[in-house]
Amino acid sequence: MSVLSAPPPGSGAVSPLSILMVASEATPYAKTGGLADVVGALPSALARLGHDVTLVMPRYRDVGNVGPVRQRLHLSLDGRRVDVGLVEVQVAEHHRVVFLDCDALYDRDGLYGHAGTDHPDNALRYGVLCRAACEYGAQLDSSPSIVHAHDWQAGLVPVLLRTQYATAPTWRGVPVVLTIHNLAYQGLFPADTMDTLDLPPSVFSIDGLEYWNQVNFLKGGINFADAVTTVSPTYARQILTADDGEGLDGVLRQRRHLLRGILNGIDTSVWDPQTDPFLPVPYAASDLRGKRDAKRVLLDRFGLPSDDDSVERPLIGMVSRMVDQKGLDLILEARNGLMGLPASFVVLGTGDRRYEEMWRALAAAHPERVGARIGFDEELAHLIEGGADLFLMPSRFEPCGLNQMYSMRYGTVPVVRATGGLVDTVRHVDAATGDGTGFLFEPYTASAMLTALRSALAAFLDRARWAAIQHEGMRQDFSWTVSAETYVQEYRNVIERRRIAGAARAYPPGE
After folding, report:
1. Which three-class secondary structure string do you get for 65-85?
2. Which of 56, 292, 313, 329 has the most C-beta neighbours closer than 10 Å?
3. 67: phi then psi, degrees, rounded to nearest 5
4. What is the pLDDT of residues 149-169, one digit of tens each?
């Protein structure tokens, strides 16, 4: 049986849903990557469709004072009491965030770690997130329609709902969906975590959380959820293979009838060249002159020449974590070939030290053509999307990717590897017709990446052809509305399946 493809958009039934989400990060409150962008935007999109969404997440140090504690939960874990305050923030009419206030667990530097080292008590920190979310839901006056848990940090939510909270009146019959944003991160902890989190010994099994005598939060979530989604159709197919399954491909193949890929959207109110406050001049597909202004300012910001000749030269941008997953090993191998291209480069990001040093060295050796900024700067990220001509994403794997969608919306042509969500969003430019929105390469090799870049740079010289590629990309609809409607359909499908099967079901559900 193959992976289900996402159904056509359109929510069907008109009755509003009540959705309880659990996640470890969300913009604008706390962010380390794309997970935060998704969890920040999806609830708002669902609320605009008339559904009621409550997100439960930690109140990290950087979140700051978002309001007073109105209620406290007293959790008992392995004989110790953990007190968690609840701080509710009403974001919009149908959208609220409940922050977990617990300084001992969340008031520290870094969400998951600091100075390159994970926090040693992450199992407890995110075990408490999951248990507090279940306890919060158990005390509600009415049951949610569905629970939506995100990534390994919320992976215990399906486990708890099917075991220790299975008989709670509020939770009886409520289905749970788990979304995998990146299978490479699974939440692996020692076996004694079972005792630390007071998890029933029966779930430390091959059909539960056990993974090579460790506790695997994500595996538990996959085994106990009523449905599993991931963030693009192609990635949903890829993770069923040994090459991309990160050791869980067998588990996922067993549950493939419940697996669906739903493409992420982007927040088009934030990423819009017509209204972006970080661009010097707004622009649209009908008039791209403002893009040239953004390019000149961008070159200035990176200390590169910004005379007319320099502005005419094609500019390749990157905003990326500097890690192997994002293809930085290809760039390291191809660095001399890249410097031989008739183009300039601007790069923003942070990651492995060897890649940071590589970009610093290239900028020092080619000060008129390479600008590198190590770190993250939201304003500069927007300016790169607006001012660059091409955007490079040579990812080894990419569950969805957002920057290629931002790029197309800004008339910046993506050059990407044909994997995951990059395949689902970028159409390769046809050499004969010129139709397409970007340039893809398939073999994960430095030579294939350089060939794709040379093809893109050749197309750049034909300004009419280049403008057609830009306009086609800017016409694509990657808004969250489309994706949110698809999630609503998936929620309704899961709710109906559980209703037919009955509220009382043994784990793992759906077998």
Report:
1. CCCCCCEEEEEEECCEEEEEE
2. 56
3. 150, 175
4. 999 999 999 999 999 999 999
